[in-house]
Write a structure and sequence with these properties.
With 226 residues, the protein is an alpha+beta fold. It has a five-stranded mixed beta sheet, with helices on both faces. The protein has a four-stranded mixed beta sheet with strand order 8-7-6-9. Helix 2 crosses helix 3. It is globular, with a radius of gyration of 19 Å. 23% of the residues are buried.
Length: 226
């Protein structure tokens, strides 16, 4: 997919981002996997990315135990105006031995790895999120708009509840199961909470798309009956 409407200035900033990334690749890996000079390295990477757009986000999936490449995924959070920039970031990336570069968070259809708790944790600023450990419950469902208000439960929420990045991190994880566009189509409000000791009445977050599909089917049948 070719990008359009990118100014020479933005193209230059994208190339500058990857030049910095390539020159600091080892330091970035050490920061992510071993937390060496973590705060400084991540701050510099965020500054480089913000120069391209302050509204482009990213998520990194990595594990010390995993033999797979570290994956960095750039996201527009459903903002179509940023799609060209996100695509350009992937296309302009150098060839890395240790990294996989991806534009947009692509929904996964295979949830078996999550059921078996074999998924790698997402690495964010100052904390990690493992999708298989997240649950949700529904607060409200707007039938007319077909939008959900939900609570997402995570372990150690009480330790991270004041983290300014937590809300964006949760949106990124949500996009693993529904697309960036679908997230804004089906989810109206997200509240966070501490995972209770008893999760019997909660739903695994990886079952969210199935839950939405069932609601849509119920609505379709109701409309048919009318």
């Amino acid at each position: 997919m070719k990008t359009q409407n990118l100014t020479p200035t933005i193209t230059k900033k994208i190339n500058s981002f990857w030049k910095w990334f390539l020159n600091n690749e080892i330091e970035i890996i050490k920061a992510l996997l071993y937390y060496e000079n973590y705060t400084d390295i991540i701050a510099k990477m965020n500054a480089k990315l913000s120069a391209i757009s302050k509204n482009i986000g990213y998520v990194i999936k990595a594990s010390i135990e995993s033999k797979e490449k570290i994956k960095i995924i750039f996201t527009a959070h459903g903002n179509s105006k940023l799609f060209d920039k996100v695509i350009a970031l992937e296309q302009a990336a150098p060839i890395f031995h240790n990294w996989t570069i991806q534009s947009f968070i692509k929904p996964t259809k295979d949830i078996e790895q999550f059921k078996k708790e074999l998924d790698d944790a997402y690495i964010f600023q100052d904390f990690e999120l493992k999708t298989s450990e997240l649950y949700f419950s529904v607060i409200d469902y707007n039938i007319q708009e077909k939008k959900l208000n939900i609570i997402i439960f995570m372990k150690n929420y009480t330790f991270h509840c004041e983290n300014d990045f937590l809300e964006e991190a949760v949106c990124i994880v949500l996009q693993e199961f529904i697309s960036e566009v679908a997230l804004y189509k089906h989810i109206n409000f997200v509240q966070m909470g501490q995972t209770p000791n008893n999760t019997k009445n909660l739903v695994h977050l990886y079952e969210l798309q199935e839950y939405i599909d069932k609601l849509n089917e119920i609505n379709r049948l109701k409309n048919t009956d009318l």
